[in-house]
Amino acid sequence: MDFSIAWQKINQMGRDFMALLPNLLFGLVVFVVFVFVARGVQSLVERLVQNRHQSQSLKLLLSRLSYVSALLLGILVTVTIMVPSFTPASLISALGVGGVAIGFAFKDIFQNFLAGILLLVTEPFKINDQIKYKEFEGTVETIQTRATTIKTYDGRRVVIPNAELFINVVTVNTAYDMRRLQYDIGIGYGDDIGQARQLIIEAMRGVAGVLADPAPEALVVDLAGSSVNIRARWWINPPRRADIMDAQDRVLEAIKNTLTAHGIDLPFPTQQILLHDQTETTDGNRKTQREGWPAGPGEVPQSRAEAQREQAEQAAAAPQPEKSAD
């Protein structure tokens, strides 16, 4: 076998590699330099945004973006040095060919990334804020470029894509320093409404954590079936979940004890059950009514069975028409 052709090709590849070796070494040195430059740019950005009022997640995002941008620039310069035939224009043209396919493939990723950037810039909520999104409610742990994680009140982690949070309604429970709570209390119809309202307000004022300004309120909101409902409203600070539960526990206990001590009734719904113990024969007979109502005096309408029996007797006694002979 003649190996001369193969040897010539291998020899040519070796000469090409040796000719390219200086470019490879120089490109490697340039890449290492750009790695240090990227770290320096990242440190500089972190120092620039250190004293500003942006959120911690936004500061981390800006530092990472600066590092990645400098590193990508270094990769482009390194590839250009190692492969002289490669130019940024050729990279752009190559990306243009597959840009549509890449866009469709990574549409959700790009959408969540852009939504994450906008959430970090606009800051509708921050880390440690307590938010509610659909059926999920908890404390914000992290705001990343792809998704936001919250820790629910029962100790679970929920990962929500940023695009969902950006285009849908999100309730921020800790957006303001104060929050108003409310609860409906029912009193009896025979109780004094003015006295009950005054007692409820005094009970709320005596609870630690209830703000004096805005002042607690007690408003009549409903004349229900078995009670007059008074809505107790009070403000707390801070408005976190644990503070809400503690304040509500203390307020309701104080209201109940105060109203009970002053003889205010706290009725509960009652129902009356009427037992129907009639048979088909006596159903509807007002003289023997047994559905919880007294029997009717004097002449009363017939029962259903009596009326049906009388109609049957009348129909039987009526003369039948004669049949004509054919």
UniProtKB/TrEMBL annotation:
Keywords: Cell membrane, Membrane, Transmembrane, Transmembrane helix. Its main location: membrane. Residues 313-326 have a biased composition (Low complexity). It is found in: Cell membrane. The chain crosses the membrane at residues 20-41, 61-83, 89-106. SUPFAM superfamilies: Mechanosensitive channel protein MscS (YggB), C-terminal domain, Mechanosensitive channel protein MscS (YggB), transmembrane region, Sm-like ribonucleoproteins. It comes from the Bacteria. Residues 280-326 are annotated as: Disordered. This is Mechanosensitive ion channel family protein. It comes from Hymenobacter perfusus.
